[in-house]
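User: Hello! My lab partner asked me to get a predicted holo structure for this protein. The small molecule is nicotinamide-adenine-dinucleotide, SMILES included with the sequence. Please write out the structure tokens.
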Amino acid sequence: MELQEKTAIITGSAKGIGFEIARTFARQGACVVLVDRSGAEKAAESLKNQHYDAIPVSLDITDMKAVNNAVEAVANAKGHIDILVNNAGIIARGDILDLSREQWLQVMDVNVNGNFYFCKAVVPYMIRQHSGSIINITSIAGKMGDITAAPVYGTSKGAINTLTKSLARQLAEYGIRVNAVAPHAIETDMSADWTNDKRQEVIEAIPLKRMGKPEEVAEAALFLASERSSFITGEILNVNGGQLMD
Ligand SMILES: NC(=O)c1ccc[n+]([C@@H]2O[C@H](COP(=O)([O-])OP(=O)(O)OC[C@H]3O[C@@H](n4cnc5c(N)ncnc54)[C@H](O)[C@@H]3O)[C@@H](O)[C@H]2O)c1
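Assistant: Hello! Below are the structure tokens for the protein in complex with nicotinamide-adenine-dinucleotide.
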């Protein structure tokens, strides 16, 4: 097992990609902390029923105080925090003409600020341990601009890409690696509102000619969390069926 004895915090893990990351890490022996604004208890319960080590934390990642308290409680309970996956995120649809200031601020608050709060909270523990792996779930939109979302979504993911590289540079001396996974067109609730025509259009543009599965994103996150990627930091790994090759 690749993550034996490790403690991993995964945000937005009540469902979708985050839940699959939690399940994949738990199967590899990690104690997984499932953070979500709703559904964390139920998700953790389903893992505990399969005899995995899972801790639910109900909070909104835009609440910095709640984030700090939760990270402190996990560190006190487990003694170490080895992995952080910043996965929680929201999307907005439409073009700039439809996009309100409130939507802009809300998407930036969750996708960028929430990510920053968690990084800031765990880094002191990782520095003390002189080890850690931070993985940010970004998007193809952060590299090539929005395809299916409002322009704030790609902007927020672009900010996460830059944060990933900045932290990778600043934290390398403490043995902390910081990487990202950039998915596209994964079967979750986030892509469930597409019309059939939109879906076909999206699939047509993907060389592998299909949607991706949450498990396929989770495998990429596992690789970046594990020692198999020990010389990789500042990387933004595509999981996109070949839509963007960079
Ligand atoms: N599904 C895709 O096609 C796709 C593609 C590219 C990137 N992504 C990214 O992958 C990540 C996961 O997406 P998903 O498709 O699983 O979405 P999802 O909507 O199925 O799940 C997102 C989870 O995050 C939680 N969440 C949202 N805001 C939160 C907040 N403020 N505080 C706490 N929890 C919060 C939700 O409750 C939910 O459980 C997101 O960052 C998303 O941008 C998804």
